[in-house]
Amino acid sequence: MLPRTEIDGHAPSAAEVLPAALVNYGHVTVMQVRDRAVRGLDLHLARLDAANRELFGVGLDGGRVRDHVRHALADTADATVRVTVFRGDGGVSVMVTVRSPEEAVATPQGLRSVVYRRPVPHIKHTGTFAQIHYGRLAEREGFDDALLVDHEGVVSEAGIANVLCHDGDAFVWPDAPALPGITMRLLDRAGLGARRRTVRLADLPSFAAVFVTNSRGVSPVGRVDDRTVPHDTEIFERVTGLYASIPWDPL
């Protein structure tokens, strides 16, 4: 039955869950698993290792993570897997949660802008209260997620995704403090050829297309606040086709 959670390869006791529940200090990666394979597995493992060194002062062995993910999956072939790393009573613990698989939606998404930037934005950490809060507020207003901007309207990222734009000539990632997402890095590695430059909130409706990218894949953006954002089918098919060409790595 899903969802299913294990800590260090076994079903956790209440005592083992308490450190993660009570101390909001740890790091995360989320991956889509299909036929027991993952896109960009090396990037997920490198993300976990780098964050662990920065937060806890020690590396995190990729083989250990893979063993725990495989064990938690059991006979499940397709899933959403979240790996959360935190300091338990016996040292660094690896918690794996297995949920139903998710796919990016092809319908244009709505983003509600909010003045906020994540602390320590280069780490996918567990401090997500503000992202959840602003995301829920956005949903109450009929949007799909929050769009994070600074006081000058400079775009950094969405609440749970990176933002990708196309200016009519080339793809553009906003040049602002943000999480280097795995899908972002996979698209760059596959030859997206995206530039990095400052993107402002007021600029978004003038782009040929805008997208959000995360572990689910790539989705188009159709509106930001009360303004419509163009949807270009050809550009959308180009970026989703590139993403679909990325190989899957066996766990």
UniProtKB/TrEMBL annotation:
- GO molecular-function term, one example from the UniProt record: transaminase activity
Name the UniProt key words of this record, in alphabetical order.
Answer: Aminotransferase, Transferase
Is Cell cycle a UniProt keyword of this protein? no
Task: Show the Pfam families listed in the entry.
Answer: Aminotran_4
Q: Which InterPro entries match?
A: Aminotrans_IV, Aminotransferase-like, BCAT-like_C, BCAT-like_N
Q: What is this protein called?
A: Aminotransferase class IV family protein
- Please give the organism: Actinomadura miaoliensis
